[in-house]
Amino acid sequence: MATINRALIIAPNWIGDALMAQPFFTLLKTRYPRLRLDAIAPRWVAPVLERMPEIETVYLTDFARRKLQLWRRWQTAQRLRAAKYAAAYILPNSAKSAVIPWFAGIGLRIGYHGEHRHGLLNSRHPNPCKKERPPMVRRYAALAYAPGAPLPDPLPAPRLEIAFDEQTQVLARFSLEAQAPLIVFCPGAEYGPAKRWPAEHFAMLAQRIAQAFPTTCIVALGSSKDAPLAQAIAERAPRVRNLCGHTSLDEACALIAYASAVISNDSGLMHIAAALRRPLLALYGSSDPRHTPPLSNTARVQWLQLECSPCFARECPLGHLNCLRELRPEQVFESLHDMLR
Q1: Which CATH superfamily is domain 6-144 in?
Q2: Full-prediction pTM beyond 0.90?
Q3: What does UniProt give as GO cellular component (predicted)?
Q4: How far does Cα 306 stand from its chain's mean position?
Q5: What percentage of the chain exceeds 70 in pLDDT?
Q6: CA separation for the pair 216, 182 (Å, rounded)
Q7: Most exposed among 115, 213, 224, 259, judged by the fewest C-beta atoms under 10 Å?
């Protein structure tokens, strides 16, 4: 590693995972200060990586999910050959994620022993089953060292910075008053319904916020897929402004950076709020905050830890979603009220 001065990161396909990989980037840069790190990332993840000081260049991809698209990956690899990367770190577990560095002729290809990757990787870390894996941030951080090597404790935390001028410009763009406190709801979760707190609970929480803090603005952020869910919240609580699908990821980051508090499901926006050090209530259902927690001392986790959770399912296998339905708005508001006092 001492002679390597340029490396390529094959980034995760999820925003939250990309943020949990940032401590790994930091460790690499700390160990090898002259190492230049570039990354390949999907378009929906790239804006987060572009805000990380450890990453120099981000190459955008738009590969279809669950598709091999071997020819397009070969074309991408040929464009990377001129950079003469000495090493590649492949963070996803799939075989297709390891194809590009192999096609590009990158000599050292590092990652976890995953899906049929014997020939594609030549430095493999053991890959235990999901229940035995360490927290995601430690799993990524281990790739900065030889397999089995001890990790520093504590690890660096993910951190994003957004200039105050950018925040105020985005507030003005969406006609939000800079003087008014801003509460951000993140009601979506790309993974599936088993990670989404019910719309009626968000609405009831909004009503309580409006009663206790009447000057507060409440906005819902997310992708266009989250817009119907946010609309259902706004219909029950008209004080909520539905911006799902109306902001770019950069704009959503700027609004989160300005927020007095963020209430979010376990999602990419939750991890962004944590990396921006905003007061955060993170709502967990089918997933496990011990594995993918918000890495911030300004975050509080709300998780009932029922006998049936975490199940890691996209939809509740029992059909009741009690892990989130029984997480009452009153309970969440009490924690929020403590944060805002």
Answers
A1: Glycogen Phosphorylase B; (3.40.50.2000)
A2: yes
A3: cytosol
A4: 24
A5: 99
A6: 6
A7: 224
CATH 3.90.780.10 assigned to 164-340: no
Under the banding of pLDDT at 50, 70 and 90, the label for residue 66 is: confident
User: Which amino acid, one-letter code, is at 3?
Assistant: T
Q: What is the pLDDT of residue 3?
A: 60
CATH topology identical between 6-144 and 164-340:
yes
Structural domain spans, the chain: 6-144, 164-340
| Alpha-carbon torsion, ordered 324, 251, 157, 190, to 10 deg | 40
Q: Count Cβ neighbours within 10 Å for each residue of 13-26 and write b for 16 or more, e otherwise.
A: bbbbbbbbbbbbbb
Contacts of residue 33, defined as CB under 8 A and 6 or more positions apart, other chains included, come to: none
CB 70 within 8 A of CB 78: no
Identify the burial level of 112 via C-beta atoms within 10 angstroms of its C-beta, where 0-12 means exposed, 13-18 middle and 19 or more buried.
buried
Give the separation between CA 324 and CA 285, rounded to whole angstroms.
5
What are 197's two structure tokens? Answer: 């707190």
DSSP string for residues in 270-297: HHHHHHTT--EEEE-SSS-TTTS----T
For residues 310 and 288, is the Cβ–Cβ distance under 8 A? yes
**Main-chain phi, psi angles of 112, to 5 degrees:** -85, 145
Residues in the chain: 341
Enumerate the β-bridge partners of residue 84: none
Strand partners, 39: 9, 58
- How far is Cα 294 from Cα 332, in angstroms, rounded to an integer? 16
